[in-house]
Amino acid sequence: QVQLVESGGGLVQPGGSLRLSCAASGSRFSINAMAWYRQHPGNERELVATVSKDGSTNYVDSVKGRFTISRDNAKNAVYLQMNRLNPEDTAVYYCNAEIRFTGWSTAFEYWGQGTQVTVSS
Question: 4: exposed, middle or buried (C-beta count within 10 Å: 0-12, 13-18, 19+)?
Fold first, then answer.
C-alpha cells in the first residue's frame, strides 16, 4: 500500500510564492510519471503540471513561466514551486503519481489528500 502526503499550502498575497511538496510512503514500488492538479470550488479538476521519470516537464498555459515542477526520485517526492501567484491560482492542489508495484505489470494512480492554496490581499 502507498500513501501520498502533501504539504506546503497556505495563504499568500498576490505576487508571492509557495512551494508544495508531496512524498510517497510504502515499499516495493516504483514511480513513473508524477503530476499536480488543482480544483476550484464547483469545477472539474485541472491538470497543472507533469514530470516524467527522466525529468521532462509540461505545464498548462496559465502557469508557464511562473510554476516549476520537479521530483526527487531518491525521496519518492514531487514538488511544485509557485511564483508570482495571483488570485486565479486559488484552489485545492492535488498531487498524483503513477505507481507500479514490484511483481506487477499494471500501473496504478494514487492521489494526495489535497492542500489549500489561497491567494488574496
Answer: buried
| Secondary structure of 16-33 as H, E, C letters | CCEEEEEEEECCCEEEEE
- Check residue 111 and report its DSSP letter: E
> Could you count the other beta carbons within 10 Å of the beta carbon of residue 50?
19
Residues 47, 63 contacting (CB under 8 angstroms): no
- The string of DSSP codes covering 51-106 is E-TT--EEE-GGGTTTEEEEEEGGGTEEEEEE-S--GGG-EEEEEEEEEEETT---
Q: What is the pLDDT of residues 11-38, one digit of tens each?
A: 999 999 999 999 999 999 999 999 999 9
